């Protein structure tokens, strides 16, 4: 058997290993959380006076998650 040419790549009997690094799951989750916090913030700008549907959705989500 010869030595592997790329020591950083893990291989299995069927080919390349498909495990994700830890940051591949953390970064999208952190981005989603940051956007959710920005949307649910205090909203001191009084420019929008339309449909409060986003507020109702966020309130429902907040009540669901804080069991």
Short note summarizing the structure:
With about 70 residues, the protein is mainly α.
Structure description:
It contains two helices and two strands; from the N terminus they run E-E-H-H. With 67 residues, it is mostly helical. A two-stranded antiparallel ribbon has the order 1-2. Strand 1 (11-12) and strand 2 (15-16) form a beta hairpin. It is elongated, with a radius of gyration of 22 Å. The protein starts with 10 loop residues before the first strand and ends with a helix.
Notable features of this structure?
about 70 residues, mainly alpha, two-stranded antiparallel sheet, 2 strands, about 45% helix, about 5% strand
Number of helices: 2
One letter per element, helices H and strands E, the order comes to EEHH
User: Can you tell me the residue ranges where pLDDT is under 50 for at least 5 consecutive residues?
Assistant: none
Quaternary status of these chains? single chain
Question: Radius of gyration, rounded?
Answer: 22 Å
For the sheet with most strands, the description reads: 2 strands, antiparallel
Range of strand content: 5-15%
Distance between the termini: 57 Å
Order of strands, main sheet, comes to 1-2
Structural class: mainly alpha
Q: How many runs of DSSP E, i.e. beta strands?
A: 2
């Amino acid at each position: 058997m010869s030595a592997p040419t790329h020591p950083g790549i893990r291989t299995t009997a069927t080919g390349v290993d498909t495990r994700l690094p830890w940051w591949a799951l953390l970064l999208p989750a952190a981005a989603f959380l940051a956007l959710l916090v920005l949307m649910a913030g205090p909203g001191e700008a009084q420019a929008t006076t339309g449909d409060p549907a986003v507020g109702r959705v966020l309130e429902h989500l907040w009540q669901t998650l804080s069991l």
